[in-house]
Amino acid sequence: MKLPEGLAGVVISETKISSTKDAILTYAGYPIQELSQAPYEEVVYLLWHKKLPTETQLTEVRKQMVSDMVLPDETIRLMKYIALEPQHPMSILRTTVSLLGTTHNNPKRDEPLRILSKMLTAIAAIIRLRDNQELMKVNPQWGVVENFMYLFTGRCPTSQQVKMFNTVMVLHADHEFNASTFTARVVASTQADYYSCLTAAVCALKGPLHGGANEQVFKMLEDIRTTGQKPIDYVNERMAAGKKIMGFGHRIYKDGDPRAKILRGIAEQIAENTNNSVYFNLQEQIRDYMFEKTHLHPNVDYYTALIYHCLGLDKSTFTTMFAACRTAGWLAHIMEQQADGCLIRPSSEYVGPINRHYPGYEKESQENEQKKHSDSERDSKDK
Q1: Cα 2–187–21 angle (5° rounding)?
Q2: Which residues, including other chains, have CB under 8 Å from residue 211's CB and lie 6 or more apart?
Q3: Which spans does this entry mark as compositional bias, Basic and acidic residues (predicted)?
């Protein structure tokens, strides 16, 4: 029997956090289309508690998160040292999460909400440190999204920008048992601490077939614009060479990623506002041709890449931004898996060679048997 590749379609556990059943994305039963305009803090509460917060609870979550968006001095010192060496931002983030687990590990205070706040601030700090820019401080009068944008851009965002980016963060907050979330759950099933689980999730997200795809999408747009090549020719050349066109297709959404449909409108608007419409126009040409040629639709990474560029981010930092958004979901799944108390330990089907013997082992075994038999006979005679 042929096993499904990559566990496609295999149900390995139950969850109350999110669902993609029938290609419809919901968070705790709420359609993503309805939640896309909800405050980010409200969605975090929903993912963790499976219900919407009251106004008082929402205010308290927002207040606590903003107050905790500060990094320990020792963490910042070590981050500055790490950022001196040229390396991918996701590598810096991987190490930073581990640092948070050592310079900030306080079981009495390291509840998920506090950890989420630190993760957002750490990611913003990585972006600033790479460009030798000063680290910013939060404004207690602002919400989480507004503060986060200020921390990584150094500019006070407009209300329109905050609204758009709030939607981006909500759409990326969770997505059932994706690769990085499943990785976090496997580690959580061993009852490891939050930081160990998050570090593992970051490692999984880094790959180009998962979170790293958004970086590759914008690299494609830059290559086309730099070379002046026609988008269709570029796509044909890559496909003829057996290479993927990043940002297209999804294992679950065969008729289109619902998140991409929402993000397309945001990408068009922000591209026009920042004089980046040339990139959006390229995306539209590629999108139309890809559907005509392969019947594949854009996924969540396709338009997110342009949105991040329009916010002034370097493409190498795009995946760290994905991590910032997805941490809320990772923590929700870590908590759920730890509460379940079951160790994830699947089995495999061995298909390699069998009945092999190490050179000389069989001869040695025969000699040992002969010696054992001789010793037995001698002992019998002695009796």
Answers
A1: 55
A2: 90, 180, 205, 319, 322, 323, 326
A3: 359-383
**pLDDT of 347:** 86
Q: How many helices (H) and strands (E) does the chain have?
A: 17, 3
CB count within 10 Å of CB 72 equals 13
Last residue in a domain, options 263, 291, 309: 309
Domain count, the chain: 2
What is the token pair recorded at 119?
Answer: 């993760």
Q: Are residues 333 and 186 in the same domain?
A: yes
pLDDT single digits (tens) 224-278: 999 999 999 999 999 999 999 999 988 888 889 999 999 999 999 999 999 999 9
Q: Tell me: pLDDT of 105 over 80.
A: no
d(CA 68, CA 305): 29
Is 340 assigned a catalytic role?
no
110 and 203 in a single domain? The answer is yes
The whole-number pLDDT of residue 11 equals: 78
297 and 167 share one domain: no
104 or 349, greater pLDDT: 349
Q: Give the predicted TM-score (pTM) of the model.
A: 0.90
**Are 49 and 145 found together in one domain?**
yes
State the catalytic residue, choosing from 172, 301, 309, 333. Answer: 301
Amino acid at 257: D
Which of 175, 250, 297, 333 is the catalytic position?
250
**Of 51-65, 185-199, 335-349, minimum mean pLDDT range:** 335-349
Structural domain that includes position 26 = 13-207+317-340
What local confidence, expressed as pLDDT, does residue 379 receive? 60
Are 267 and 202 in a shared domain?
Answer: no
383 lies in a domain? no
Specify whether 301 is catalytic: yes
